[in-house]
Amino acid sequence: MIKRLGDWFKPYGFIDWTRVGFSVGVPAIAAAMIAVKINEPKPPTAKEKNRGFASVKAAKSEAERVLVVMNDDSPDSVRIAAAYMKARSVPAANLVRIKTKTTEEIKTAEYVESIQKPIQNALKKSKNPIDFIVLTRGIPIRLDDIGGYSVDATLAAMEIDVAPIKQKVGSLGIDDSNPERCVNPYFRSNEPFSHAKFGLYLVTRLTGYDADDAVKLITKSLNAKKYKGPFLLDSQPLKPRDGGYGEMEKTLSQAADKLTEAGLDVEYDVSPEFVQGSGPLMGYASWGSNDNRFSLNTYRKLRFKAGAISETFVSTSGRTFERTSGGQSLIADLISQGITGVKGYVSEPYTFALCRTQILFDRYTKGACLAEAFYAASPVMKWKDIVIGDPLCRPFKADAPFAKFNASRKKKRVAVGK
Protein backbone atom coordinates (compact mmCIF):
# COMPACT_ATOMS: atom_id res chain seq x y z
CA MET A 1 0.00 0.00 0.00
CA ILE A 2 1.29 3.48 -0.86
CA LYS A 3 2.16 5.34 2.30
CA ARG A 4 0.37 8.65 2.70
CA LEU A 5 2.55 11.44 1.33
CA GLY A 6 0.59 13.95 3.37
CA ASP A 7 2.29 17.31 3.69
CA TRP A 8 5.84 16.55 2.57
CA PHE A 9 6.05 19.65 0.36
CA LYS A 10 4.02 21.97 2.59
CA PRO A 11 7.08 23.55 4.22
CA TYR A 12 8.05 24.73 0.74
CA GLY A 13 4.68 26.34 0.11
CA PHE A 14 3.76 24.80 -3.19
CA ILE A 15 2.22 21.36 -2.87
CA ASP A 16 -0.64 20.06 -0.79
CA TRP A 17 -0.42 16.29 -1.15
CA THR A 18 -3.82 14.66 -1.20
CA ARG A 19 -3.47 12.38 -4.19
CA VAL A 20 -0.66 11.02 -6.36
CA GLY A 21 -1.02 11.66 -10.10
CA PHE A 22 0.54 9.97 -13.08
CA SER A 23 -0.29 8.82 -16.57
CA VAL A 24 0.25 5.57 -18.37
CA GLY A 25 -0.18 5.16 -22.10
CA VAL A 26 -2.49 7.19 -24.30
CA PRO A 27 -4.92 8.38 -23.10
CA ALA A 28 -3.65 8.89 -19.55
CA ILE A 29 -4.86 6.72 -16.70
CA ALA A 30 -5.32 8.53 -13.40
CA ALA A 31 -4.40 6.52 -10.35
CA ALA A 32 -3.76 7.59 -6.76
CA MET A 33 -3.58 11.25 -7.80
CA ILE A 34 -1.51 14.06 -6.28
CA ALA A 35 -3.13 17.48 -6.01
CA VAL A 36 -0.53 20.16 -6.59
CA LYS A 37 -1.12 23.72 -5.42
CA ILE A 38 1.10 26.07 -7.36
CA ASN A 39 1.79 29.34 -5.60
CA GLU A 40 3.28 32.38 -7.22
CA PRO A 41 7.10 32.25 -7.32
CA LYS A 42 8.92 34.08 -4.58
CA PRO A 43 9.55 37.72 -5.54
CA PRO A 44 13.22 38.55 -6.09
CA THR A 45 15.05 40.54 -3.46
CA ALA A 46 16.35 44.01 -4.30
CA LYS A 47 19.86 42.57 -4.45
CA GLU A 48 18.76 39.87 -6.91
CA LYS A 49 16.98 42.42 -9.10
CA ASN A 50 20.09 44.55 -9.29
CA ARG A 51 22.52 41.84 -10.27
CA GLY A 52 20.40 39.88 -12.75
CA PHE A 53 20.81 36.26 -13.83
CA ALA A 54 23.89 36.74 -15.99
CA SER A 55 26.18 38.27 -13.37
CA VAL A 56 27.34 35.19 -11.41
CA LYS A 57 31.12 34.95 -11.48
CA ALA A 58 31.38 37.85 -13.88
CA ALA A 59 35.18 37.63 -13.81
CA LYS A 60 35.01 34.16 -15.31
CA SER A 61 33.71 33.34 -18.76
CA GLU A 62 30.59 31.17 -18.65
CA ALA A 63 32.41 28.50 -20.67
CA GLU A 64 34.82 27.96 -17.77
CA ARG A 65 31.85 26.96 -15.61
CA VAL A 66 30.98 24.01 -17.88
CA LEU A 67 32.29 20.45 -17.59
CA VAL A 68 31.85 18.43 -20.79
CA VAL A 69 31.60 14.62 -20.61
CA MET A 70 32.72 12.54 -23.62
CA ASN A 71 32.24 8.78 -23.94
CA ASP A 72 35.26 7.50 -25.87
CA ASP A 73 33.31 4.36 -26.78
CA SER A 74 30.70 6.36 -28.71
CA PRO A 75 31.60 8.10 -31.98
CA ASP A 76 28.50 10.26 -31.59
CA SER A 77 29.61 11.40 -28.13
CA VAL A 78 33.12 12.20 -29.35
CA ARG A 79 31.78 14.28 -32.24
CA ILE A 80 29.19 16.16 -30.17
CA ALA A 81 31.51 16.93 -27.25
CA ALA A 82 34.22 18.22 -29.59
CA ALA A 83 31.72 20.38 -31.47
CA TYR A 84 30.37 21.90 -28.27
CA MET A 85 33.78 22.64 -26.79
CA LYS A 86 34.87 24.38 -29.98
CA ALA A 87 31.62 26.35 -30.36
CA ARG A 88 31.63 27.57 -26.75
CA SER A 89 35.42 27.81 -26.32
CA VAL A 90 35.30 25.49 -23.34
CA PRO A 91 38.80 25.03 -21.87
CA ALA A 92 40.43 21.70 -22.71
CA ALA A 93 40.86 21.08 -18.98
CA ASN A 94 37.06 21.00 -18.65
CA LEU A 95 36.72 17.83 -20.74
CA VAL A 96 36.12 14.49 -18.97
CA ARG A 97 36.74 11.40 -21.06
CA ILE A 98 34.94 8.29 -19.87
CA LYS A 99 34.46 4.76 -21.20
CA THR A 100 30.99 3.43 -20.59
CA LYS A 101 28.06 1.68 -22.23
CA THR A 102 26.45 3.29 -25.26
CA THR A 103 23.03 1.79 -24.54
CA GLU A 104 20.26 3.90 -23.01
CA GLU A 105 20.12 1.84 -19.79
CA ILE A 106 22.91 1.06 -17.36
CA LYS A 107 23.03 -0.76 -14.04
CA THR A 108 23.52 1.56 -11.07
CA ALA A 109 26.80 -0.05 -9.98
CA GLU A 110 28.25 0.30 -13.48
CA TYR A 111 27.00 3.90 -13.69
CA VAL A 112 28.83 4.77 -10.46
CA GLU A 113 32.12 3.25 -11.62
CA SER A 114 32.16 4.31 -15.28
CA ILE A 115 30.31 7.65 -15.18
CA GLN A 116 29.91 9.22 -11.75
CA LYS A 117 33.34 8.50 -10.27
CA PRO A 118 35.35 9.81 -13.26
CA ILE A 119 33.24 12.98 -13.21
CA GLN A 120 33.72 13.42 -9.47
CA ASN A 121 37.48 12.97 -9.87
CA ALA A 122 37.55 15.59 -12.61
CA LEU A 123 35.56 18.02 -10.46
CA LYS A 124 38.03 17.62 -7.60
CA LYS A 125 40.95 18.40 -9.90
CA SER A 126 39.29 21.25 -11.77
CA LYS A 127 40.86 24.69 -11.31
CA ASN A 128 37.66 26.25 -12.64
CA PRO A 129 34.59 26.22 -10.36
CA ILE A 130 32.03 24.09 -12.22
CA ASP A 131 28.31 24.84 -12.20
CA PHE A 132 27.12 23.06 -15.36
CA ILE A 133 27.73 19.55 -16.69
CA VAL A 134 27.02 18.67 -20.34
CA LEU A 135 26.37 15.06 -21.34
CA THR A 136 25.89 13.82 -24.89
CA ARG A 137 24.20 11.23 -27.00
CA GLY A 138 26.04 7.94 -26.52
CA ILE A 139 25.90 8.11 -22.71
CA PRO A 140 23.14 6.12 -20.92
CA ILE A 141 20.03 8.06 -19.87
CA ARG A 142 18.40 5.71 -17.33
CA LEU A 143 19.44 3.52 -14.41
CA ASP A 144 18.64 -0.21 -14.25
CA ASP A 145 15.37 -0.64 -16.17
CA ILE A 146 12.49 1.01 -18.04
CA GLY A 147 11.13 2.46 -14.78
CA GLY A 148 14.49 3.64 -13.51
CA TYR A 149 15.90 6.98 -12.37
CA SER A 150 17.50 9.47 -14.73
CA VAL A 151 21.28 9.37 -15.09
CA ASP A 152 21.27 13.15 -15.56
CA ALA A 153 19.17 13.85 -12.46
CA THR A 154 21.29 11.46 -10.41
CA LEU A 155 24.48 13.23 -11.49
CA ALA A 156 22.99 16.64 -10.80
CA ALA A 157 22.52 15.86 -7.10
CA MET A 158 25.39 13.41 -6.62
CA GLU A 159 26.95 15.56 -3.88
CA ILE A 160 23.69 15.85 -1.92
CA ASP A 161 23.61 12.95 0.48
CA VAL A 162 19.98 11.87 0.30
CA ALA A 163 18.37 8.80 -1.21
CA PRO A 164 16.04 9.25 -4.18
CA ILE A 165 12.29 8.93 -3.72
CA LYS A 166 11.59 5.27 -3.15
CA GLN A 167 9.43 3.50 -5.71
CA LYS A 168 7.30 0.39 -5.38
CA VAL A 169 9.13 -2.66 -6.61
CA GLY A 170 7.58 -4.25 -9.68
CA SER A 171 4.72 -1.76 -10.08
CA LEU A 172 3.88 1.89 -10.47
CA GLY A 173 3.71 3.85 -7.27
CA ILE A 174 5.71 5.60 -4.57
CA ASP A 175 6.51 3.93 -1.26
CA ASP A 176 8.28 6.59 0.76
CA SER A 177 7.42 8.19 4.10
CA ASN A 178 9.91 11.05 3.76
CA PRO A 179 10.12 12.24 0.14
CA GLU A 180 10.49 15.91 1.13
CA ARG A 181 14.24 15.30 1.30
CA CYS A 182 14.23 15.37 -2.51
CA VAL A 183 12.92 18.91 -2.97
CA ASN A 184 15.14 20.65 -5.53
CA PRO A 185 16.99 23.39 -3.59
CA TYR A 186 16.99 25.62 -6.68
CA PHE A 187 13.24 25.27 -7.32
CA ARG A 188 11.49 28.66 -7.68
CA SER A 189 14.79 30.50 -7.34
CA ASN A 190 15.00 34.05 -8.65
CA GLU A 191 18.78 34.29 -8.54
CA PRO A 192 21.70 33.12 -10.64
CA PHE A 193 22.83 29.56 -10.00
CA SER A 194 26.06 28.48 -8.39
CA HIS A 195 27.02 25.01 -7.23
CA ALA A 196 28.70 26.54 -4.19
CA LYS A 197 25.37 27.90 -2.93
CA PHE A 198 22.87 25.24 -3.99
CA GLY A 199 24.89 22.02 -3.89
CA LEU A 200 23.59 20.79 -7.24
CA TYR A 201 25.15 20.80 -10.66
CA LEU A 202 22.87 21.81 -13.52
CA VAL A 203 23.16 18.86 -15.91
CA THR A 204 21.94 19.11 -19.48
CA ARG A 205 22.42 16.85 -22.47
CA LEU A 206 23.09 17.32 -26.18
CA THR A 207 21.25 14.51 -27.91
CA GLY A 208 18.60 13.64 -30.46
CA TYR A 209 17.83 10.91 -32.92
CA ASP A 210 21.38 11.19 -34.22
CA ALA A 211 24.54 13.25 -33.81
CA ASP A 212 23.34 15.75 -36.42
CA ASP A 213 20.32 16.58 -34.24
CA ALA A 214 22.58 17.08 -31.23
CA VAL A 215 24.97 19.36 -33.09
CA LYS A 216 21.96 21.33 -34.35
CA LEU A 217 21.12 22.10 -30.71
CA ILE A 218 24.49 23.85 -30.43
CA THR A 219 23.92 25.87 -33.60
CA LYS A 220 20.44 26.85 -32.48
CA SER A 221 21.81 28.03 -29.14
CA LEU A 222 24.53 30.15 -30.72
CA ASN A 223 21.97 31.73 -33.08
CA ALA A 224 19.35 32.31 -30.36
CA LYS A 225 17.73 35.74 -30.36
CA LYS A 226 15.30 37.49 -28.02
CA TYR A 227 12.21 36.95 -30.13
CA LYS A 228 8.96 38.20 -28.59
CA GLY A 229 7.27 34.95 -29.43
CA PRO A 230 5.00 33.39 -30.18
CA PHE A 231 4.69 31.24 -27.06
CA LEU A 232 2.10 28.52 -27.70
CA LEU A 233 0.42 27.17 -24.56
CA ASP A 234 -1.98 24.41 -25.58
CA SER A 235 -4.52 23.77 -22.82
CA GLN A 236 -6.86 20.78 -22.77
CA PRO A 237 -10.23 21.63 -21.16
CA LEU A 238 -11.33 17.99 -21.34
CA LYS A 239 -8.80 17.11 -18.63
CA PRO A 240 -10.05 16.70 -15.04
CA ARG A 241 -10.25 20.04 -13.27
CA ASP A 242 -8.96 18.65 -9.98
CA GLY A 243 -5.83 16.82 -8.85
CA GLY A 244 -2.52 16.93 -10.64
CA TYR A 245 -4.05 17.40 -14.08
CA GLY A 246 -6.01 20.46 -12.99
CA GLU A 247 -2.99 22.00 -11.35
CA MET A 248 -0.87 21.55 -14.47
CA GLU A 249 -3.61 23.29 -16.43
CA LYS A 250 -3.27 26.20 -14.00
CA THR A 251 0.43 26.48 -14.76
CA LEU A 252 -0.42 27.09 -18.42
CA SER A 253 -2.87 29.86 -17.53
CA GLN A 254 -0.38 31.43 -15.14
CA ALA A 255 2.34 31.24 -17.79
CA ALA A 256 0.05 32.98 -20.28
CA ASP A 257 -0.60 35.76 -17.77
CA LYS A 258 3.07 36.28 -16.99
CA LEU A 259 4.17 36.33 -20.62
CA THR A 260 1.34 38.69 -21.54
CA GLU A 261 2.24 41.06 -18.71
CA ALA A 262 5.79 41.07 -20.04
CA GLY A 263 4.61 42.29 -23.45
CA LEU A 264 5.38 39.04 -25.22
CA ASP A 265 3.27 37.31 -27.87
CA VAL A 266 1.19 34.49 -26.41
CA GLU A 267 -1.15 32.00 -28.06
CA TYR A 268 -3.09 30.42 -25.21
CA ASP A 269 -5.30 27.79 -26.81
CA VAL A 270 -8.28 26.87 -24.65
CA SER A 271 -10.08 24.72 -27.20
CA PRO A 272 -10.21 20.91 -26.96
CA GLU A 273 -8.21 20.62 -30.19
CA PHE A 274 -4.51 19.81 -30.37
CA VAL A 275 -3.05 22.78 -32.23
CA GLN A 276 0.04 23.76 -34.17
CA GLY A 277 0.11 27.50 -33.56
CA SER A 278 1.02 30.24 -35.98
CA GLY A 279 4.45 29.85 -37.44
CA PRO A 280 7.78 29.05 -35.77
CA LEU A 281 7.48 29.22 -31.99
CA MET A 282 9.70 30.69 -29.27
CA GLY A 283 8.07 28.65 -26.52
CA TYR A 284 5.78 25.63 -26.39
CA ALA A 285 3.90 23.75 -23.69
CA SER A 286 1.20 21.11 -24.13
CA TRP A 287 -0.05 17.72 -22.98
CA GLY A 288 1.57 16.04 -25.97
CA SER A 289 0.14 12.57 -26.49
CA ASN A 290 -1.77 12.89 -23.21
CA ASP A 291 -3.98 15.46 -24.93
CA ASN A 292 -7.43 13.94 -25.46
CA ARG A 293 -7.28 14.93 -29.14
CA PHE A 294 -3.58 14.47 -29.77
CA SER A 295 -2.49 14.36 -33.40
CA LEU A 296 0.97 12.98 -34.13
CA ASN A 297 0.82 14.64 -37.53
CA THR A 298 0.20 18.05 -35.90
CA TYR A 299 2.89 17.41 -33.28
CA ARG A 300 5.43 16.73 -36.01
CA LYS A 301 4.51 19.93 -37.84
CA LEU A 302 5.62 22.13 -34.94
CA ARG A 303 8.55 24.38 -35.84
CA PHE A 304 10.71 26.58 -33.64
CA LYS A 305 12.86 29.68 -33.64
CA ALA A 306 16.47 29.64 -32.48
CA GLY A 307 16.37 29.84 -28.70
CA ALA A 308 12.92 28.22 -28.29
CA ILE A 309 12.24 26.05 -25.23
CA SER A 310 9.49 23.57 -24.39
CA GLU A 311 7.83 21.33 -21.82
CA THR A 312 5.25 18.64 -22.53
CA PHE A 313 3.24 17.00 -19.76
CA VAL A 314 4.06 13.47 -20.92
CA SER A 315 5.24 10.75 -18.54
CA THR A 316 7.83 9.11 -20.77
CA SER A 317 8.65 11.84 -23.28
CA GLY A 318 12.38 11.24 -22.76
CA ARG A 319 12.28 7.43 -22.52
CA THR A 320 14.33 7.04 -25.70
CA PHE A 321 16.22 9.04 -28.28
CA GLU A 322 16.19 6.24 -30.80
CA ARG A 323 13.68 6.21 -33.63
CA THR A 324 10.68 4.15 -32.65
CA SER A 325 6.94 3.92 -33.17
CA GLY A 326 4.05 3.69 -30.74
CA GLY A 327 3.91 4.78 -27.14
CA GLN A 328 3.78 8.33 -25.84
CA SER A 329 5.04 11.36 -27.74
CA LEU A 330 8.79 11.97 -27.63
CA ILE A 331 10.79 15.15 -27.14
CA ALA A 332 13.26 13.71 -29.66
CA ASP A 333 10.76 14.73 -32.34
CA LEU A 334 10.83 18.32 -31.08
CA ILE A 335 14.63 18.30 -31.20
CA SER A 336 14.62 17.16 -34.82
CA GLN A 337 12.04 19.88 -35.56
CA GLY A 338 14.27 22.66 -34.28
CA ILE A 339 13.71 23.16 -30.54
CA THR A 340 16.72 24.60 -28.68
CA GLY A 341 15.87 23.34 -25.19
CA VAL A 342 13.31 20.90 -23.82
CA LYS A 343 12.66 18.85 -20.70
CA GLY A 344 11.52 15.24 -20.69
CA TYR A 345 11.24 12.23 -18.39
CA VAL A 346 13.02 8.91 -18.79
CA SER A 347 10.24 7.05 -16.95
CA GLU A 348 7.03 7.83 -15.03
CA PRO A 349 7.62 11.03 -12.99
CA TYR A 350 4.06 11.71 -11.70
CA THR A 351 2.58 15.17 -12.05
CA PHE A 352 4.37 16.53 -8.98
CA ALA A 353 7.68 16.46 -10.87
CA LEU A 354 6.57 18.13 -14.08
CA CYS A 355 8.09 21.44 -15.11
CA ARG A 356 6.15 24.48 -13.85
CA THR A 357 5.73 26.42 -17.07
CA GLN A 358 4.87 29.74 -15.42
CA ILE A 359 8.30 29.63 -13.76
CA LEU A 360 10.13 28.22 -16.79
CA PHE A 361 9.10 30.95 -19.23
CA ASP A 362 9.26 33.71 -16.63
CA ARG A 363 12.86 32.98 -15.68
CA TYR A 364 14.01 32.41 -19.26
CA THR A 365 12.56 35.67 -20.53
CA LYS A 366 14.05 37.54 -17.56
CA GLY A 367 17.57 36.53 -18.56
CA ALA A 368 18.15 33.13 -16.96
CA CYS A 369 20.19 30.73 -19.05
CA LEU A 370 18.51 27.59 -20.35
CA ALA A 371 19.75 25.39 -17.51
CA GLU A 372 18.75 27.88 -14.81
CA ALA A 373 15.25 28.27 -16.26
CA PHE A 374 14.53 24.54 -16.44
CA TYR A 375 15.95 23.72 -13.03
CA ALA A 376 14.22 26.68 -11.33
CA ALA A 377 10.95 25.27 -12.71
CA SER A 378 11.58 21.66 -11.59
CA PRO A 379 10.28 20.70 -8.11
CA VAL A 380 12.34 17.60 -7.29
CA MET A 381 15.84 16.19 -7.65
CA LYS A 382 17.31 12.69 -8.10
CA TRP A 383 14.25 11.65 -10.09
CA LYS A 384 13.27 11.09 -13.73
CA ASP A 385 14.10 14.47 -15.32
CA ILE A 386 16.28 14.99 -18.38
CA VAL A 387 17.01 18.50 -19.71
CA ILE A 388 18.12 18.84 -23.31
CA GLY A 389 20.12 21.74 -24.71
CA ASP A 390 23.13 24.00 -24.25
CA PRO A 391 23.03 25.13 -20.61
CA LEU A 392 24.48 28.53 -21.53
CA CYS A 393 21.82 29.49 -24.06
CA ARG A 394 20.59 32.92 -22.97
CA PRO A 395 18.70 34.86 -25.68
CA PHE A 396 17.03 37.21 -23.19
CA LYS A 397 20.03 39.07 -21.86
CA ALA A 398 19.77 40.27 -18.28
CA ASP A 399 21.17 43.66 -19.29
CA ALA A 400 18.36 44.13 -21.84
CA PRO A 401 15.14 43.46 -19.94
CA PHE A 402 12.32 42.00 -21.99
CA ALA A 403 10.06 44.84 -20.81
CA LYS A 404 11.87 47.11 -23.28
CA PHE A 405 10.54 45.06 -26.17
CA ASN A 406 7.18 46.75 -25.88
CA ALA A 407 7.51 49.72 -23.59
CA SER A 408 4.66 51.64 -25.20
CA ARG A 409 1.93 49.03 -24.67
CA LYS A 410 1.29 45.54 -23.37
CA LYS A 411 0.19 42.74 -25.64
CA LYS A 412 -3.16 41.09 -25.09
CA ARG A 413 -2.86 37.36 -24.84
CA VAL A 414 -4.64 35.54 -27.62
CA ALA A 415 -7.07 33.02 -26.12
CA VAL A 416 -7.73 30.75 -29.06
CA GLY A 417 -10.71 28.44 -29.27
CA LYS A 418 -13.27 30.15 -27.06
Topology:
Blueprint lengths: L45 H6 L14 E6 L3 H14 L6 E4 L6 E2 L1 H18 L6 E5 L5 E2 L7 H6 L38 H4 L3 E5 L4 H12 L8 E4 L8 H19 L4 E4 L11 E6 L9 H4 L4 E9 L18 H6 L4 E5 L11 H9 L4 H7 L8 E4 L25 E3 L2
Parallel strand pairs: 1-2, 1-4, 3-5, 4-6, 7-8, 7-9, 8-13, 9-10, 10-11
Antiparallel strand pairs: 11-12
Protein architecture, described:
- With 418 residues, the protein is an alpha/beta fold.
- The protein has one domain.
- The protein is built from eleven helices and 13 strands.
- The strands form three sheets. A seven-stranded mixed beta sheet has the order 12-11-10-9-7-8-13. It has a four-stranded parallel beta sheet with strand order 2-1-4-6, sandwiched between helices.
- α2 (75-88) packs parallel to α6 (211-222), α7 packs parallel to α10 (357-365) and α10 (357-365) packs antiparallel against α11.
- The protein is globular.
- The termini are far apart.
